[in-house]
Amino acid sequence: MKRNILLSLLFISSLLCYSAESQRLIEANRLYQQENYKAADSLYQLVLEEEGASAALYYNLGNAKYRQGEIAPAILNYERALKLDPNNEDILFNLEMAKLQTKDKIEQLDNLIFSEWSKSLQNLFSSNGWAILSILTFLITLGGIALYFFGTNSSIKKTSFFASIATLLICITSIYYASKQKDILQTHDTAIIFAPSVTGKGSPDKAGTDLFLLHEGTKVRVKSKLNGWVEIQIPDGNIGWIEEKDLEII
User: Fold this and answer.
1) Positive or negative, the Cα torsion across 5, 6, 12, 16?
2) What letter does residue 188 receive in the DSSP assignment?
3) Residue 19 has pLDDT above 60, yes or no
4) pLDDT category of residue 186 using cuts at 50, 70 and 90
């Protein structure tokens, strides 16, 4: 009896918490629609801390930052949203709009056509999406194999054989891309410059040779860290050191 009462109380408590968190999100969205972006920003961050991350939440927070003219934080949150939902057209569009507000226009190293094609394919789904597709194609493959071994019609056996090979290849590809997308979520090796301007140094100290100048909002790749300094690579391939306080990890 006591156990049932306790379970009931826990269930009611979880419902009340969920309702309160949902109400906070509804309120944040209402504040945003009323163009009270600062208040919406604060509430979105509270929901993020208490309810956990999601692509939609990072996207909304990015919008609130953008509307306040905070370009670097907006880009940071759009990039975080994109990691969770890599093929979302709204996120991609708003990210590009925010990037237009940045000062640095760095030419990116040319990538091989195959590499670009593979990345586009990879971004069709999130890690969970690719995982679901791999399970579905594996089950279809098993069905095709069963038809091939136990079917009596020769044309159906032939079709199921080649269909099984095709779905198996899709299954293997899906597993590969699911793993790649999971690695992206778990690897934090990119960052956004938050300082108004920062000079890339040839060594991890202020006396190092000046190599390049960056401004807030620029995305960089983090290669290593040393005593409060971060070795970064910018889109054109150049490498230098900046202080860790001048960037935020995506």
Assistant:
1) positive
2) -
3) no
4) confident
CB 243 within 8 A of CB 230: yes
Token pair belonging to 40: 């919406």
**CB-based contact 106:235 (threshold 8 Å):** yes
Residues contacting 41, CB < 8 A, separation 6+: 61, 64, 65, 68
- Name the pTM for this structure: 0.79
Helix (H) or strand (E) holding 227: none
Residues 212/199, Cβ–Cβ less than 8 Å: yes
pLDDT for 23:
86
Query: For residue 132, which of 178, 88, 182 has the smallest C-alpha distance?
Result: 178
Give the pLDDT confidence of 89-146 residue by residue, as tens digits: 999 999 999 999 999 988 877 666 777 788 888 888 889 999 999 999 999 999 999 9
Q: What is the CA radius of gyration of the chain?
A: 24
Nearest alpha carbon to residue 63 among 44, 47, 88, 83: 44
Phi and psi, residue 106, nearest 5°: -95, 130
* Cα 77 to Cα 72, 214, 239, 249, distances in angstroms: 9, 20, 25, 11
SS3 of residue 204 by DSSP: coil
CA atoms within 13 A on the CB side of 67: 17
